[in-house]
Amino acid sequence: MPDSRSETSFDLEHRVGGFRRNDPFDPSKDRHALASPARLIDDPESLPAAFEVTVIGDIRVDVRAAVLDHRFVEMAVDEQTVAPVVTDVGGTAIGFARAAASHFTNVHVLGVMGRDSWSDFIRGRCTTGRIDAYLTEVAGPNSMVVVLRDQGTKDNPRGVRLIVSSGVTPYGQLDADRIRSQAALIQRSDALVISTSLSTSRWKPASRCASISCRTGSTGT
What we know:
Helix content is 25%, strand content 23%. The chain is an alpha/beta fold. The strands form 2 sheets. A 5-stranded parallel β-sheet has the order 5-4-1-8-9. Strands 3-2-6-7 form a 4-stranded mixed β-sheet.
């Protein structure tokens, strides 16, 4: 009987499944002076940045603007306004990496990017400070996301966002060989975070990530 899981979710479990499991934590031999990365996650302010994390996820180009003088629900005709427009690298991988950078000594990003006029821009923005990116360039365009936020209301002062994303992302080309090329990096990490944005509802992210993390000796999310 054919496997009902999607090809992406099925392959992901096996891409890192052959990595050697790390030995159990031994404070006297390990490079860390702390007992567990779980403590760092539970109370990050009380502990120094002593762990490494690897993030596997998608990389996109974000174009963002806040429309502070309009509410989308009230617009019945075309409108034009002037507001700051910010272009930056986004996606689940780089978003998590930036949030984690102050809590981990090193944050490694594994991903795939397209080959177009945005490629140099993405490379320049992904590696900074404690974040280092290992991005493979593949044929095809990079994924674009346009995010517009309206002026908001008393009940929702941050406003409502309209998010428009291109349907194709290079993340789908993150194959076994590309992940296995960074096997040593994943084995060295204390936590492994995998974006499940391409998986279907048939894939149970928690159980699959737990399986992958167990085989690599990392804490999975």
